[in-house]
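Handout, tutorial session.
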Amino acid sequence: MLFGAEENHLAGVQHKVGAEGAVLNPPGLTDSHPHPSRQPHAMNPYTSPFVVNMVADSPESARAEFIRKTYGHLAGAIALFAILEYLFLSLGFGETALVLLGTSRFSWLIVLGAFMLVSWVAENWATYGTSMAKQYAGLALYTVAEAVIFLPMIALSVAMTGDLSLLTQAGLITAAMVLGISAVALTTRKDFSFLGGILKIGGFVALGLIVVSFILPISLGLWFSAAMIVFASGAILYNTSNLIHRYQPGQHVAAALSLFASVALLFWYVLRILMSLRRN
């Protein structure tokens, strides 16, 4: 039951990815009130308080610097995530988490609710924080939340093989996919913002299926995981495109958080498929 319930935790991550459009188009900005970045002289409400120009309107050197900072912070978040998972497993927290989540089929639902609340707070700090310290706190908080919610899944994968082989495979596959998708977005410089609406709808559908799986005796199998890999790939393409077209030069922390959420989603479902294949 624990393994079958593992996939349900991604509602929290899907919440973050599905909310990307809401981040870039805050409440009140609908088709009749388009995002200010589409209006030449309007200030973007999703903004650093110190700048008003978009990365797309900046010199080439500024765009390159923004991308470098974003990926540097993404790498830092991934490193912190890995360190936390190592510490949690070393301290025996993985087994404890599996036991606690196995006490009730609704345990994950409680965890997901807590994760969604924490991720909302972290996202707002990273996006709207008026100081760099608060933005960094948001990224750090979100990374810790990801590490906690991933812990049972990672502990289970280690228990299945007795080593880190599944995690290594999933990490290499995820890294290769992220590099390929990022190369497409950054080299073509195409604006993939049209994916935002598709990702929102897909996120709500996936979340609905996950919630239903708590209530009805259904299992979200390999096909669902494969579909979510496609969804996560689209989110990475969308967020990478936004680095150039939808952010301002001072928003590299928020950009890194969005990318980290999408990469974590992809890693989760790649690992989920590898674990399913291992069981079969």
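The second record follows below. Compare its token runs with those of the first.
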Amino acid sequence: MTGLQPNRRTWLACLLLAFATLAIYWPARHYGFVDYDDDDYVFNNPVVRAGLSWPNFVWALSDQHACNWHPLTWLSHMADCQFFGINPGAMHLENVLFHCANSILLLLLLNSMTNAFWRSAIVAALFALHPLRVESVAWIAERKDVLSGFFFTQKNKPSAKIRNFKKIIFTGSHGSVSSSGFSPSRCS
């Protein structure tokens, strides 16, 4: 692959990364719900089960159900219920696809920030395939994590164009639209 043009090399690396990520996590589509948080988030949550509607949208923006304020996560789960019903396989598959996209976006983001393609590809592959990512991908309630990764890469695209690597690393996702959050006020 060293003799490939940069554009073809990038496409090939993205395809290999997507294939490897899908191969590792594809069995998750057969998993069921986990009784730890999936009940609060999805299958025992009547608001989420009802799908997308204006009152549910307002609820997602204002409620701290399960001691968390993460409106994008709630809206994502509502969309799942709207389109797939209470189908854990489809919800797991959506997490897998988000993680696959996040891995590719991380490769592209790191490469644009550092101009070090192979290092970026290795880091993205470690992110995609590392066992620590299993919880975020194979647990429906952890949708907030894959959504945060997606919005983190999207928020930092403009910064990457000016090679502002230190700002991205040291400020994290501050200032972005967050899909996760915690407010202890009603959970004490």
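Points raised in discussion: The chain has one domain: 6-186.
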